[in-house]
């Protein structure tokens, strides 16, 4: 199985969760973890991951925060399974609130600044309702200090098909106990891929 980890905003391929996944995969010969750098405009980031999805076989996604938002859009397009960690629901709104008018464009890296046009792109990219809901495992923590977990609960449980949602009390946006959840997350993704084959 090829697992693509989509890091969050202001993060990198060297994020703690990405590295925990990679170390876990290093112990196994049936698993490869890909850690693309997504510090670029949203359309470019999604295109980069889309290319990976098309190039690889038995693909699954794990996305954190903004990476969870990207994963949701890619699942809708490609039908691959995904695990979402405290996914961002309306990142364009979140960033407008966080950075207010004065701070946009916001320099994220030396090469990339987030601006209003990119926030509009995020908004246009968002699928109005969940696609392939049964291929999504959503991991939430009520102690998330950045996002309201209830928004994700509503979005991923609306409609005929509901995603598998696990909400924990306490915790935080980084989900510091993610390492404990890796075996379960990978089992879910693997089962989804097997079901897809039959």
Automatic annotation (TrEMBL):
Secreted recorded as keyword: no
MF annotations from Gene Ontology: hydrolase activity
UniProt KW keywords: Hydrolase
UniProt cross-references to Pfam families, sorted A to Z: UPF0227 (PF05728)
InterPro entries: AB_hydrolase_fold (IPR029058), UPF0227/Esterase_YqiA (IPR008886)
SUPFAM superfamilies linked: alpha/beta-Hydrolases
Highest taxon in the source lineage: Bacteria
Name of the featured protein: YqiA/YcfP family alpha/beta fold hydrolase
Protein source organism: Acinetobacter chinensis
């Amino acid at each position: 199985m090829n697992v693509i980890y989509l890091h969050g905003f202001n993060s990198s391929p060297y994020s703690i969760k990405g590295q925990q996944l990679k170390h876990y995969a290093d112990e196994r010969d049936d698993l490869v973890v890909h850690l693309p750098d997504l510090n670029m405009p949203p359309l470019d980031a999604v295109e980069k991951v889309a290319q990976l999805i098309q190039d690889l076989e038995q693909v699954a996604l794990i996305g954190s925060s903004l990476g969870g938002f990207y994963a949701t859009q890619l699942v809708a397009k490609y039908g691959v399974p995904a695990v979402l960690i405290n996914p961002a629901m309306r990142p364009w709104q979140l960033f407008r609130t966080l950075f207010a008018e004065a701070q946009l464009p916001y320099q994220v890296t030396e090469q990339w600044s987030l601006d209003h046009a990119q926030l509009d792109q995020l908004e246009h990219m968002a699928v109005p309702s969940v696609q392939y809901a049964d291929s999504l495992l959503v991991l939430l923590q009520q102690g998330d200090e950045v996002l309201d977990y209830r928004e994700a609960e509503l979005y991923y449980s609306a409609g005929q098909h509901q995603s598998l949602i696990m909400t924990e009390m306490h915790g935080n946006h980084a989900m510091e106990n993610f390492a404990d959840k890796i075996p379960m997350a990978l089992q879910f993704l693997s089962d989804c891929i097997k079901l897809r084959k039959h």
